[in-house]
Amino acid sequence: MGWRIGQGFDAHRFSPDPGRVLRLALLDWPGEPALEGHSDGDVAAHALVDAIASAAGLGDIGTLFGTDRPAFEGASSAVFLEGVVRRARAAGFVVEHATVQIIGNHPRIGARRWEAEHGIGQVVGAPVSVSATTTDSMGFTGRGEGLAALASCLLRPAS
């Protein structure tokens, strides 16, 4: 059993509910529109769950934490990350490194990048790089309708 690479993607539209707070990269972003979703809608965490799950041969976020399970309604995406890391470990893998790129016009990630990297890294037990980009006004993220995220990870065999 050798090293594995995984990739993940997620996208959610912004919620029309002004009472919700954006949850992104395991952080709350007060004053920003929240994302719709069965759970907290955290596209960064969801993309990383898919990357880890695919690398470990565990399927995807829907397989592991599907919307058909009421227990996950409104859940923090930290629960999903903790769960997939635990399952990857049981399958014989440990996260060595991960990257997450958030795609959208706002929020501005730079000022909280270290906080996001540290928080996600604490949950997955490995260094995590967080970056952000826009789509130069193209597509649903460019029109300000929602956010997307890409993630990749490197898993090594557990010792």
CATH class identity = Alpha Beta
The CATH homologous superfamily name equals 2-C-methyl-D-erythritol 2,4-cyclodiphosphate synthase
Strand order of the largest sheet: 1-6-4-5
Structural class designation: alpha+beta
Helical content stands at 25-40%
Task: Walk me through this protein's architecture.
The chain is of the alpha+beta class and 159 residues long. It has a single domain (4-157), classed as 2-Layer Sandwich (60s Ribosomal Protein L30, Chain: A). The protein contains 5 helices and 6 strands. It has a 4-stranded mixed β-sheet with strand order 1-6-4-5. Helix 1 runs parallel beside helix 3.
Question: What's the short story on this structure?
Answer:
With 159 residues, this protein is of the alpha+beta class. It has one domain: 60s Ribosomal Protein L30, Chain: A, CATH 3.30.1330.50.
Can you give keywords for this protein?
single chain, 6 strands, 4-stranded mixed β-sheet, globular, 159 residues, alpha+beta, 5 helices
Strand and helix map with partners:
Blueprint: E1 4-13, E2 22-24, E3 27-29, H1 43-56, H2 61-65, H3 77-90, E4 93-103, H4 113-124, E5 128-133, H5 139-142, E6 146-157
Parallel strand pairs: 4-5
Antiparallel strand pairs: 1-6, 2-3, 4-6
